[in-house]
Amino acid sequence: MKIGVLAVQGDFEAHRAMLGSLAVESFEIRALADLEGLDAVVLPGGESTTQLKFLQEEGLFHPLRKFAQEDGAIFGTCAGAILLATEVLNPPQDSLALMDMTVLRNGYGRQLSSEVRFGHCTLKPAPLEMVFIRAPIIERVGPGIEILAEDAGRPVLVRQGRLLAATFHPELTFDSTVYTFFLGLIGERVRA
Ligand code: GLN
Q1: Does the predicted TM-score (pTM) go above 0.90?
Q2: Of 146, 168, 175, 177, which alpha carbon lies 20 to 30 A from 116's?
Q3: According to the model, what pLDDT value does residue 108 have?
């Protein structure tokens, strides 16, 4: 399977390291040609405004939407989750609008802006370590969205078909639970 990681800005190296630790080779996405032949795309954390601008300027915005609509798998963490949401607030921002949810940027305010917390996740029995860095809040999810983890009563890991979004950073821990789940979603496509 061929996985590309958007490598414009943000913590794309951490995603590639996590994939490498799972013996999965990954490729950096910097231009349109890098999307060729991919089964899955990772949108890393970072600054969603910068990433969005890059996608638009490099002509990646519409091809990425098409990739998802043709059943490609996408995993967005933090800024990546913001890019996937249909609606972005605080302030309002354009997005790939692929997952039916409303996201509030920097939703935890200053005090709780960066923190490690443990919470319940349907993917494993033990609490999941979740690293939040100026994280967005998922304020609303549509009926097609499955909630896989919550923190303080709010969804923090959600899935819609082969699209997965986390407001935290699974790539910054040694716990591969979320990544293993994502790799399973891609596998389904390859077999189909
Ligand atoms: N606050 C950032 C944004 O709005 C996201 C932070 C992150 O990805 N760690 O883009």
Answers
A1: yes
A2: 146
A3: 83
